[in-house]
Amino acid sequence: MQWGQIITHDMSMQAGGTQSKKHPTRCCTDDGRLIGLDTAHKTCFAIIVPPHDPAYSQVGTECLNFVRTLTDRDSNCQYAGGPAEQLTVVTSYLDLSLVYGNSIQQNSDIREFQGGRMIVEERNGGKWLPLSRNVTGDCDAVDSSEVCYRSGDVRVNQNPGLAILQTVLLREHNRIADALAALNPHYDDRTLFQESRKINIAQYQQISYYEWLPIFLGAENMLKNRLIYKAPGGSYVNDFDLNIDPSVLNEHATAAFRYFHSQIEGRLDLLSEMRTVLGSLTLSDWFNRPGIIEVGDNFDSLTRGHATQPEELTDINFDRQIKHFLFRRNMPFGSDLRSLDIQRNRDHGLASYNDMREFCGLRRAHSWEDYSDLISVPIIEKLKSLYHSHEDVDLTVGGSLEAHVSGALAGPTFLCILTEQFYRTRVGDRFFFENGDKITGFTPDQLVELRKASMARLLCDNGNRITSMQPEAFRTVSGSNPIMPCTNIAQVDLTKWIDQKPYATADPSAHYGRK
Ligand code: HEM
Ligand SMILES: [Ca+2]
């Protein structure tokens, strides 16, 4: 057995799946009935709802739409004789492709080509993501005047939290570009764009690896496996390895990383600067309707809400908003994210839970009872009633039932996959921000600054009028993580990017010492 790779070249987006809106290919009728196999599109793999389903039986839904991910077979580029491999349409590096796009063409469509900036549009005194050119296609818009965004990633409109994050990262790019333009008046648009992008990506990698991932993977586990380093100061980590394939593991994108769907909270609080609750939104009212973030003070209040209200537990329970009401538009029920995850596991033909356990160095189970080292007995009893054999348990199911490793938010099998992925994502990236490459790396002075980047500072700098935040924005407010004025939160000092020399891009050969 070996790791399964999703083919490409932020973390994968499977081609042709159900990432955001309703898929144009319909495998069920509008009222949730199955379309006969003879008439359904060949990529259909509809989810059959049992008649006794506690939610869907209320409205007689017997079929949930599911369209198979496109593979190399569909695109006539199949590896000789190998099994079908899923295709992805985004880059697999942590390169903020969600902001900058996945190709030169996508990038050109969202760049301003002035002052190094990305396109933002002014509405109601604020700077927002540019509008989609196909509002009713990209969003669940009631009419074509509704706000619907265009960005580097088509999922931007999927939920309000994501639209906020996309906006914050876009504004951050322009904030950096404006600062660099003031510090280096001799820089042209292209230099400003590339340098700002490079800083924005570095901050994003710093935040992802040093602030966010430790909560999920455990800081000790990350240190031990060389995903992060202790107190690096201004020193480089030159761990780039040409032999490490940085593309996204199928087991990661289709099982392990989706486990965090369990954390999704269906109620989105709106909070004042004093952190009093002004109201709340219901997630399923706002799938693919991102315009809500531009209404009144919602951008700031929702941002404070996301930073303040706790996530749901990482466990076997999933919020009704995604379990019954995903993309429901104004219908009483929608789709079920948990079912989609399980069906996607089968669509991609992932290895079984038992095989993956063994591959990760855990004990292979030879009977149901052998799972009791990691899964509780009542849950094993439930599994027995659902699967014919202990060998049949899907990876996405078994992995999410394991007791968590101490200090992490996943059991050993998922943690093995997540750790392998995030090791590859850094070590396989020759531009990872901690690398000391003479041409592409940062100076030690700049690295010291980048290591001060935080989610709190990003939210402070790119809200409309957010003036306070807790320093660890991914953690709830507490005595040791109190709300404080933004001015007290460390800032990346961009004066370390003052470039004394005339910039050398006019003569790229100068970099390589060629004549
Ligand atoms: C409101 C929040 C979210 C919603 C509504 C949502 C919804 C979805 C949907 C509909 C899909 C595609 C399902 C399919 O057809 O196979 C998906 C994929 C995925 N989601 Fe989420 N998700 C959310 C948050 C998250 C979070 C917080 C994480 C991880 C921390 C996550 C990780 C993933 C991953 C890894 C995939 C597979 C992406 C790919 O490879 O194509 N999602 N999500
Ligand atoms: Ca949960």
TrEMBL record:
Source superkingdom: Eukaryota
Organism: Drosophila guanche (Fruit fly)
Upper taxonomic lineage: Eukaryota, Metazoa, Ecdysozoa, Arthropoda, Hexapoda
Protein name: Blast:Peroxidase
Transmembrane feature ranges: none
Keywords per UniProt: Heme, Iron, Metal-binding, Oxidoreductase, Peroxidase
A GO biological process held by the record: response to oxidative stress
Residues covered by region (Disordered): 1-24
One function term, GO molecular function aspect: peroxidase activity
InterPro entries the UniProt entry points to: Haem_peroxidase_animal, Haem_peroxidase_sf, Haem_peroxidase_sf_animal
PANTHER family named in the record: OXIDASE/PEROXIDASE, PEROXIDASE
PROSITE patterns: PEROXIDASE_3
Residues binding heme b, per UniProt: 261
